[in-house]
Amino acid sequence: MARSVFISYSHHDNDIALGVVAALEASGVDVWIAPRDVIPGAEWAAEIIDAISAARVLVLVFSSHSNDSPQVRREIERAVHKQLPILPFRTEHIRPSKSLEYFLSAQHWLDAFPPPYEAYYPRLCRHVLDLLGATPSPPAGPDLPAAASESRSPASAFAARELELLDLRTRLAQEIEPAGERQQFLKSLRGLRGL
Fold it and tell me: N or C: lower Cβ tally within 10 Å for the chain?
């Protein structure tokens, strides 16, 4: 089954990647991620190539682990070869290896640090929706939710409102002190949103 977004990540960043998937799928985006979407008994490499070929956007969970991953380098090379837009979701303040720099030098990064990563999911979802050609929203600042467009379908308008609420809840959680209360609040948000 063709999916709009391919997630490239190191298995060391599995929890972050699954959080990205949950946020994107909650916003109505079809996502392909290994190993979840690899057909049992199918050849792994062929499944990866088919998924990249069918995707319209590749989201790279960029970390020191993915920076050193030969598998990630191959996925990025294939995406560049197929002229797929790449959105790097950078979880650490590091520079890409020479191999990845060659492929990513023209890409604008979405910095997702310091944690919690959930704070950056609404912005990631807005950018992915824009890359997919969803009805564009009026420009929003880096910390402001995008307004729902009147011309959106009811489902995408609902997804946009859900993203705005998640963004507001996360920003509120970042303001709550002390840190223990903040962590408890973030845990309750994850439970509510299934993240």
Answer: N
How much is the pTM?
Answer: 0.71
User: Pairing between strand 86-90 and 110-111?
Assistant: parallel
> What is the token pair recorded at 98?
């020479």
Q: Is the peptide bond before 85 cis (omega within 30 degrees of 0)?
A: no
**What single-letter amino acid sits at 67?**
N
E strand or H helix that includes residue 163: helix 154-175
Beta strand segments in the chain, E: 5-8, 31-32, 57-62, 86-90, 110-111
φ, ψ at 61 (rounded to 5°): -80, 100
3-state secondary structure of 109: coil
The answer to whether 13 touches 61, Cβ cutoff 8 Å, is: yes
